[in-house]
Design brief:
The chain folds into two domains: about 5-55; about 75-255, 3-Layer(aba) Sandwich (Rossmann fold), CATH 3.40.50. α6 links the parallel β6 and β7. By secondary structure, the protein is α/β, with parallel strands linked by helices. The strands form two sheets. The protein has a seven-stranded mixed β-sheet. The radius of gyration is 19 Å and the shape is globular. The model has no long low-confidence stretch (mean pLDDT about 90). The protein starts with 6 loop residues before the first strand and ends with a strand. Helix content is about 30%, strand content about 25%. α3 runs parallel beside α5. The chain contains nine helices and eleven strands. The chain binds S-adenosylmethionine. S-adenosylmethionine (SAM) binds near residues 133, 183 and 202. InterPro entries: 16SrRNA_methylTrfase_J, SAM-dependent_MTases_sf. GO terms for molecular function: rRNA (guanine-N2-)-methyltransferase activity. This is Protein-L-isoD(D-D) O-methyltransferase. Pfam families: SAM_MT.
């Protein structure tokens, strides 16, 4: 289709034969064109496209030509360390996450909250992460292949879907906790990789209907990250969880 985004798959310039073969296989699997780098610059190789999936020895990155984004733990690494040391971690505390919990992350993104939740619920728990941006969903899915969560963590099951639709068709009280962390309208960070995230992310903002859908599907609570408190938060049962960090976390009890 003419207006479909143009995505291509390629490799880093000096990729070896294994990486070349992997990139070709992925391109075929995803039904995307494969572009041979043949030692030329990325722009010369791929031309005018919306996004490039670049494979190299360390995995895959998502590039716009100017900036790129790679699966990484980022600040989630510190949060995971806190949990390992038995120290309080905000999401774990806000949702009162327990071993064995079944968590729905309705805004998967780079998967940081999902991976933290996976560690908090342990190997008997489960995390489902829903993402509606195909490039971001793929970035996380590929990143998981190179990520060692360890025995004390559950796995994260990524799902490519719109989470409003997913919530609508999910059974009532089918997840212990639902996490909502949509894109902020006025983000503070603006480095290159964050701009890649913003370019591909679903920009839809939090509203009361989304929180209500999440509360219907939650058995214990819904946890929300938001840049500010909207006027309707209290009528949806959302209360601020003190975090002390840069991000505001809110909690609402299950049940719409
Ligand atoms: C701020 S990021 C989430 C970051 C994530 N909590 C983390 O820790 O990495 C928001 C993500 O939610 C996704 N998103 C927004 N609306 C969505 C929807 N209706 N369904 C599924 N994903 C959605 C965006 O595409 C974006 O990737």
């Amino acid at each position: 289709m003419e207006n479909d985004p143009k995505y291509v798959v390629t490799t880093s310039r000096r990729a070896g034969s294994d990486v070349l073969a992997l990139a070709r296989d992925k391109a075929a699997e995803w039904n995307l064109p494969y572009v041979d780098r043949a030692g030329v610059s990325l722009v010369d190789a791929v031309g005018d496209v919306d996004a490039v999936f670049i494979f190299d020895l360390d995995g895959m990155s998502l590039s716009t030509g100017e900036s790129s984004l790679r699966f990484s733990l980022g600040t989630a690494a510190l949060r995971l360390q806190s949990i390992s040391r038995g120290e309080p971690e905000t999401l774990m505390r806000a949702a009162n996450l327990q071993p064995g919990d079944n968590v729905l992350d309705a805004t998967l993104g780079l998967g940081h909250d999902s991976l933290v939740a996976a560690r908090a619920v342990g190997s008997t728990g489960s995390i489902t992460g829903v993402e509606s941006s195909w490039p971001l969903y793929m970035l996380f899915k590929e990143g998981l292949l190179h990520y060692e969560a360890g025995d004390e963590s559950s796995t994260v099951q990524p799902v490519f879907d719109d989470s409003r639709r997913f919530l609508e068709s999910a059974e009532e009280s089918s997840f212990d906790v639902v996490i909502l962390d949509p894109m902020f309208a006025n983000p503070k960070r603006s480095d290159g990789s964050f701009e890649v995230l913003r370019k591909f992310a679903n920009p839809s903002s939090l509203d009361a209907a989304w929180v209500e859908m999440a509360r219907r599907v939650a058995k214990r609570c819904v946890v929300v990250k938001s840049e500010r408190e909207a006027s309707w938060f209290s009528s949806e049962g959302l209360e601020r969880v003190s975090s002390g960090g840069r991000v505001n976390w809110y909690w609402a009890p299950a049940g719409s």
